[in-house]
Fold this sequence. Notes:
This protein is mainly β. Helices cover 7% and strands 41% of the residues. It contains three helices and 31 strands. The chain has helices at 33-53, 334-337, 394-397, and strands at residues 4-7, 12-13, 16-17, 25-28, 62-64, 74-83, 98-100, 106-110, 118-122, 128-132, 134-135, 141-142, 145-150, 156-160, 165-169, 175-180, 187-190, 196-199, 212-215, 221-225, 242-246, 250-255, 260-265, 270-275, 296-302, 307-315, 338-346, 351-358, 362-365, 370-376, 382-392. It has a five-stranded mixed sheet, with no helix packed on it. Strands 6-31-30-29 form a four-stranded antiparallel sheet, with no helix packed on it. It has a four-stranded antiparallel sheet with strand order 7-8-9-10, with no helix packed on it. The protein is globular, with a radius of gyration of 23 Å.
Amino acid sequence: MFPATLILGLNQTEHGKETVRSECAIQIRRGTVVRRLVATALCFAVSSYCSAQVAVPPQLATTVLRRGMCLTCQIIATRTLQLGDDDGPGELSSNPFLSCSATGTFAVTASPAGRPTTIVLYDANGKFRRTLGRSGSGPGEYRTAYPIKFAARDSLYVFDLSVRRLTVLAPDGKYVRTVQMPMRVSAAVLLPNGSTAMFSIMGNTKLPGAPLHIVDANGGVMASFGADNPDQRPIDDATYRFVIARSARGIWAARINDYRISEYDMRGHLLRTLSVPTSWFPKWEADPKRVTPVPGLFAMQEDGAGLLWVMTRVPDKRFRVVPSGTPLLQQPTGDEQFDTVIEVIDTRTNRVLASRTLDETLLAFGCAGTAYAYREDANDRPHVDVWKLSVNGLTSAQKF
């Protein structure tokens, strides 16, 4: 009989299957050194295999941020650029998604057939350059080109939501390769090690309750995480949706219905959770009978200084319930329905440094220090407005 008892701590808890290596305990009876080493290696191999399937780290305490605003800090938001020509190939359509490269190129999805099947490129001055893609399933063709992400050296990653496929394009727009993704990609963050952190509304078939995943360059699932119970998918899609952004150590992730932000490393292990106290963003659950809008967390971005920018959407003071059957032209516009609240968080001192409410409906962050919004002009022509964002007084903020 092998003189070692191997105890694998794959215990069922309310948080799912624990697969942390520390749970793998070895009780060694009397035996040779070689046998002890073999037992240790077995434990390491089994626990490593399991943790690659689902990463559920030990529960960490939640840090409640302080709202000690910096008196000298002020968020500056200025509309600086308009994308979208009045007509021709540079014309856009509704529901755009934007990504921008380090060299200033803007890529915006266009939906000539109802779904985003083409990508329109503009230079740093907003001048139309070219159009990429078309409707279809072949190389360089898309059913639903969403999301899109610029990678290093201006290569463009185009995720096709409909067919679970990633297409990589060279900086000149030429087709490079395709990768079959294991699930539909609803949001993606490109990590420096070549893997992709992603949120999937459909989830992993093996772990239907896990909304977040780390996928390698070939489409293999390295980790699935972000759920209390990874084996069971929540019924409500609204509170299941996640917003993700890259952090210095991995990714930031948050549900749209709760102003709580978690940081994970590049293996899907939880590092910390930040709770942002506010009276205007209580946690909410889906209610089909609700007629008034609720706040939502829609975008995050960590800047070069390590500050975390958070974009939330709150009901506008002018909001009113639209009676059924109201003509479209008499219905309020998006800016009359919602405002955008942008906050800057210093995650090192756990403090909210600045907050600003804009009477605009911004969609998401763009390049570092920018955000974008959709707008139709007086002739109903679609455009994307690029906003420049900055914070004054950061030096003073670090002193108090």
